[in-house]
Amino acid sequence: MSGSRPVSRPIPLADLRRSWLATDPEVAEAAARVLASGWYIRGPEHDAFEAELAAFLGLGYACGVASGTDALVLALQAVGCGSGAEVVTAANAGGYATNAALQLGCRVVYADVDRSSQVVTPATVEAVLGPETRAVVVTHLYGNVADAATITALCRGRGIAVVEDCAQAIGGERDGRRAGAFGDVATLSFYPTKNLGTAGDGGAVATDDPGIAARVRSLRQYGWSTRYTVQDPLGRNSRLDEVQAAILRIGLRRVDAWNERRRAIVDHYAAALLSTGAPDVTMVTGAGVPTVAHLAVVRSTRRDDLRARLHAAGVGTDVHYPVPDHRQPGLPSPARRSALPETERAVAEVLTVPCFPDLTDDEVERISHALASSSA
Ligand SMILES: Cc1ncc(COP(=O)(O)O)c(C=O)c1O
C-alpha cells in the first residue's frame, strides 16, 4: 500500500467466505444448538422449516429432501412419471431436469426458450406437447420467472402435470404469486450459492396437493407408509438434516431482502449498459420478466472478447451453461419435435458476471463500469 494507489482486487463470481453462512453468529449458534440436541434427522427444526417454507411460498405443503435434483426426481415420480413417460423441459438450464427425468427412465423432449429472458414460454411449450407428454418442467432460469400460470392452464386440459423448478427463483413473484405456486408442484435447491443456500446440500418439494405431498413424504423415506412398512417400491433415502433446516429457517426470514439486493445489483448493470447506448451487450436477467436475479447474465455476439475484457478488469465470469442438454455427449439423443434456435444461439452468447448480496457498492460500480466500457 505505502502511499501508492491500491491495486483493485479481483471480484469473484461468488465468495461464500463473505456470506452469512460463514460470518453470522446466528448460523453458528443454530448449528451448535442442533448438535447439542442430539436430534439430527427429521426433528423439530425440519418440521418447523417445512411449515415456514410452505407459508412463504403460499402453498399447503413443503417436504424437505436432500437436494434440488432429488426434489425434481421425487416431484416427477409423485405426478406419475415413470419409465417411458415423456417429460418436456428446456435444454439450456444446466441439465438438472433432464438428469432427474432420465433417472426415472423417462424420455425428454426439449422446448425452445424466449430470446430475451431465456425461459420457456406457453408458445414454445405448446409447440412440443404430444399425446405422450406426462409432465412439463418449467425452470425459472437465472431467477427469471416464466409464465408458468399460462403454461399450467394449457397443460391442465390435457392431463399434463407442471413442475416448477424454483432452484434459482425462490421468492420470485409474478402477478402477485410466488414462483412455485402456479404449477402442480414446485422444487427447490438450497445449494450454498442459491438465493437461499445452506451450508451443505438440501432441497424441497412444495405443493398444494395433499396427494402429491403424501407420495413425496413416502418416497423420500424408503417408500414407507409407517416406520419399516414399505408401501411404495420406488422409495429412496432423501432427507434434509436438522442442521441445514435450522440454518434455512434463519435464511428464509431474510431471503426477500437478499433478493432485493440482487435485483438492485442487476438494475445497476442494466442502467450502465443502457447509458452506453451500444446494443452489443444486453441483459438477460430481468429482460421482460420479473426476476430474483440468481445469476446476472448478459449476452453478446462477441462473448469471448467481452469475457477477456472483463477478466482484464478483474471481474470473474462464467457461462451458464456452455453445453445444452441435447448436445451433451453422454446423454441419449432426445426426440426432436421442434428446432431450438434461441437455445442454440444463446449458448454461444451468454455470460454470467458476479451477483451476490455481499458484493460491495464499489465492486458493483466496478463491474458496471467494466460492462459499459466493453459495450462502448
Ligand atoms: C435450475 C436448477 N435445478 C436444479 C438444480 C439442482 O439442485 P442441487 O444441486 O441441489 O441438486 C440446480 C442447481 O444446482 C439448478 O440450478
Shape: globular
Q: Total number of helical segments?
A: 13
The share of residues in extended strands comes to 5-15%
Radius of gyration: 21 Å
How does CATH name the architecture of the largest domain? 3-Layer(aba) Sandwich
Beta-strand segment tally: 14
- Let me know the CATH homologous superfamily of the largest domain: Type I PLP-dependent aspartate aminotransferase-like (Major domain)
Give the integer mean of the pLDDT values. Answer: 96
Question: Strands of the largest sheet, in order across it?
Answer: 1-9-8-5-4-2-3
**Beginning-to-end CA distance, first to last residue:** 32 Å
Low-confidence stretches: none
Topology-level CATH name of the largest domain = Aspartate Aminotransferase, domain 2
Defining key terms:
single chain, 376 residues, alpha/beta, Aspartate Aminotransferase, domain 2, Aspartate Aminotransferase, domain 1, 2 domains, 3-stranded antiparallel beta sheet, 37% helix, binds pyridoxal-5'-phosphate
